[in-house]
Amino acid sequence: MADRAPFNIALVGNPNCGKSSIFNQLTGLRQKTGNFPGVTVDKKEGRIALAAGIEATLIDFPGAYSLYPNSQDERIVVQTFADPNNPVYPDAAVYVADVTRLEKHLLLFSQLCDLEIPLVLALNMADVAEREGLKIDTAVLSKLFGAPVVLLSGRSGQGMTGLQEALLGLYEKKNGGHTSPLQYKLSADEQKLATSIKAIFPVASDYHAILLAHHYSWLPFLNASQRTDIEAIVQARGFESLRSQVEETLARYERFSPIVAQALQRPTAESGRLTAAMDKVLTHRIAGPVIFFFLMGLIFQSIFAWATYPMDWIEQGFGGLGAWLGTVLPEGWINSIITEGVLAGLGGILVFVPQIAILFFLISLLEELGYMARAAFIFDRLMRVFGLNGRSIVALISGGACAIPAIMSTRTISNWKERLITILVTPFISCSARIPVYTVLIGFVVPAKTVGGFFNLQGLAFMGLYLLGILTALLSGLVLKWILRTEERSFLMLELPQYRTPVLRNVALTVWEKVRTFIVEAGKVIMIISLVLWVLSSYGPGRKIEAAEQEAVALAESLQLDEVATDDLIAARRIEASWAGHIGKAIEPAIRPLGFDWKIGIALITSFAAREVFVGTMATIYSIGSSQDEYSIRDRMAQERNPVTGLPMYSLATSLSLLLFYVFAMQCMSTIAVVRRETKSWKWPLLQFFFMTGLAYLASLAAYQIFS
Amino acid sequence: MAAATSSPILKTLSGVPRGNTAVVSHFGDQTLAGRLISMGVLPGSLVMVMRSAPFGGGMYVKADNLLLALRSEEAGTIIIR
Q1: Beta-carbon contacts of residue A5 (< 8 Å; ≥ 6 apart)
Q2: Helix axes A371-385, A287-328, angle to 10 degrees
Q3: Can you give the residue ranges of every domain in chain B?
Q4: CB contact, 8 Å: A390 with chain B?
Q5: How far apart are CA A264 and CA A144, in angstroms?
Q6: ipTM
Q7: Three-class SS state of A154
Q8: Is residue A543 helix, strand or coil?
Q9: Which helix (H) or strand (E) element contains residue B52?
Q10: Would you tell me how many other CB atoms lie within 10 Å of the CB of residue A156?
Q11: Are the beta carbons of A283 and B34 separated by less than 8 Å?
């Protein structure tokens, strides 16, 4: 890369063409995620070797149907391909088309041909075509489009070397001129318009100029004066964008459809019979929603049943490591910062990996299968009642793991208002970070009893908290639907892909990417807060900590406490005298009506970073920092007495109040950051914060006042 | 934005009963037309209404070999012959 300019290869295609399988085949784990310049659309790219010593960067573009985009994701293709100065402007592109639905997948390819970028046409699903008895004459297609055509399968990996050879061919011909024959001949009016635009904005092809006429109002690479100039030309010529688009599209289909029909030999047997049979059940009026909820139930059951074991190992591992290091390392602040700061932080991050991995394993399995589009279809009507879109269901479900990827997944919703509402209400869905908080507190509210011979009462309460979150999300949507105004059209118009056996490689890579994102993005915050917390709880104003310690030692002696109890007492007095203790006491008057004391106050503040920090904070406050697991903290909390009444501190009223607080409150710095990034303003995340936390305060207040 | 400029004699896809097939004539709404033709629903396409959405308000259609979920209003802009 040092001695030659990087060779950028774009990977483009319609949604559901199997592009990501091909991307994963070519790049494997050598992929990284970033953003397209200037926008928050995910860009995946990876290094690939075209031949020994020749490397290229493969960039995965969002799926698009044409150069006439309907969503922010779809816009990326046209705004990059029409902008030679764009840093990711491709030197060549691989266009992926599903060979089993080739007639529908060539429109965008035909348009890209006229932009004069060297292309390879990759006909995907060769294995399915073979099984179905579909025959393709690639030479005919190659002649029509003037581009190499490769038959391959992202699932089985067949034909990948052919694709690499074709790309090497384009690489060697670099700057060697464009060979595609013109796919669409402009009308006389369009020709004149293109000539006028090219006079002020020199672009390579006439079609490129016409695209500027269609999209000048939003294309980000145009400056204000270029925009005004193009607008003036467009208006002077009476150019009608929509009519021109329709005519162009029909002309393109007319050109390639007969040749595609000639190149394809279809078997007489109807394909897609399996999909039809499956949809008969899966999108059925009654069976459809029932199966959906059954699947979601299964997913949550799996998270709770499977994730417990690896989570226990991680917790025990870190507990053991902390205890061992505590004895090996010399006493002092280094020992303390490593065992109570760094290890606590690391453990707090890694403990979520099993849940995130399992959830995304199952969700991407369903996505790969083609089921998620059906879920959007089934729930579109229902979601619209709440100001959402059928596609919001995916975000709401993903919100069950973490609001951050869920909010990022709303980019497929093209209507701004529906997307915004989805973003604003998704954090109400109980995410995995609330699980440890619920786990610690739920035992104080409901006993571990089995009802009906099968259901665990605490499990049911868990489900109740989730339902409460879902209900609040939907009701908030309803409110927001009436408050927010928009002129923009909303539509569903969703392609339902054929069901396909999931490719485990794709699923595994999705899981890996989500886990890595969590560890890197959320992990950073959790780690920092863990260290800040360590400082806040280890140091205090002046020499108060030392004074408190001496006092505790004296008290322990007079009470004749044993060694363990003495240490506990010292630790508790130390934290009370620390900065954290002072902050907690300062906010105590505001949270006393909710049944919270200053210790909970500390936890509320630190867990604003991320909800799960609550558990770690409780461990530190109750001086059992070396054992971070929920059950030992719960046992310790159960022993806590109210200093005034002598009754258990975590009574039904306080615990319920605290649980409700965590159901509703926006206790997540990372979510706020993501919402700001996605809405491009501080207005929405701040509104969301005050709305959610205000609601939490009122709910907790009501619960405590009623039950105490 | 007015949805469709359909006169009463024009029939749209939203009126086609389940299990029936219709041929697309043209579109009553230009924005939606742009998206439909991008996806491959063209004048002359054969559209079969497979089923209606579980909670109402939409339909599942098969246009040539493309499976598509449409809202009723969207289907109402597809004029059939």
Answers
A1: none
A2: 100
A3: 11-80
A4: yes
A5: 14
A6: 0.90
A7: coil
A8: coil
A9: strand B46-52
A10: 16
A11: no
Q: Give, in order, the Cα–Cα distances in Å from A379 to each of A396, A416, A474, A641, B48.
A: 12, 19, 13, 48, 21
Nearest CA in chain A to B67: A496
Q: How far is B31 from chain A (nearest CA, A)?
A: 7
Handedness of CA B64, B75, B3, B11 (dihedral sign): positive
Residues A104/A63, Cβ–Cβ less than 8 Å: no
At residue A285, what are phi and psi to the nearest 5 degrees? Answer: -45, -50
Q: A418 near A385, Cβ under 8 Å? A: no
Handedness of CA A580, A583, A587, A592 (dihedral sign): positive
User: How many Cβ atoms sit within 10 Å of the Cβ of residue A361?
Assistant: 18
Contact B40 A272 (CB under 8 A): no
B19 inside 8 A of chain A by CB: no
Break chain A into its structural domains and give their ranges.
Answer: 8-172, 188-265, 523-707
A251 touches chain B (CB under 8 A): no
Q: Which two tokens stand for residue A21?
A: 């399988």
For A499-527, the DSSP string reads P----HHHHHHHHHHHHHHIIIIIHHHHH
Please give the angle made by the CA atoms of A80, A415 and A682, to the nearest 5 degrees: 80
What are the CA-CA distances from residue A292 to residues A283, A387, A394 (Å)?
9, 21, 12
**HEC states along A225-270?**
HHHHHHHHHHHHCCCCHHHHHHHHHHHHHHHHHHHHHHHEECCCCC
Q: Would you tell me how many other CB atoms lie within 10 Å of the CB of residue A217? A: 11
Parallel, antiparallel or unpaired: strands A8-13 and B11-12? unpaired
Tokens for A666, please give them: 């926006």
Predicted confidence at residue A177, as pLDDT, reads 58
Cβ of A23 under 8 Å from any chain B Cβ?
Answer: no
Residue A332: CB atoms within 10 Å: 8
Long-range contacts of A309-313 (CB under 8 A, 24+ apart): A310/A353, A310/A354, A311/A351, A311/A354, A311/A355, A312/A629
Q: Which CATH class is domain B11-80?
A: mainly beta
pLDDT per residue as tens digits for the range A465-480: 989 999 999 999 999 9
- Do B68 and A246 make contact, defined as CB atoms within 8 angstroms? no
CB A432 within 8 A of CB A401: yes
Angle of CA points A271, A264, A14, to nearest 5°:
70
pLDDT tens, position by position, A601-650:
988 887 877 787 788 777 767 755 545 567 777 888 888 887 777 788 88
The chain A residue lying nearest B42, using CA atoms, is A250
The beta-strand segments (E) located in A378-533 are: 450-451, 455-456, 494-495
Residues in B touching A101 (Cβ below 8 Å): 65-66
| CA atoms within 13 Å, Cβ hemisphere of A128 | 20
Residue A272 has pLDDT above 50, yes or no: yes
> Between A and B, how many CB-CB pairs are < 8 A?
120
- Within a 10 A sphere around the Cβ of A269, how many other Cβ atoms? 8
Least confident of A33-37, A441-445, A563-567, A672-676: A563-567
pLDDT of residue A13: 96
Enumerate residues 467 to 486 of chain A having a beta carbon within 8 A of any beta carbon in chain B.
Answer: none
By the 10 Å C-beta count (0-12 exposed, 13-18 middle, 19+ buried), A435 is classed as: buried
Give the architecture (CATH level 2) of A8-172. Answer: 3-Layer(aba) Sandwich (3.40)
The predicted model scores a pTM of 0.83
**Which one, of A273, A269, A358, A344, lies nearest residue A314 by Cα?**
A344
CA nearest to B73 within chain A: A491
Residue-level pLDDT at A1? 39
Closest by CA position to A521, among listed A416, A388, A669 = A669
The DSSP secondary structure of A623-689, one letter per residue, reads T-TT---HHHHHHHHHH-B-TTT-SBSS-HHHHHHHHHHHHHS---HHHHHHHHHHHTSSHHHHHHH
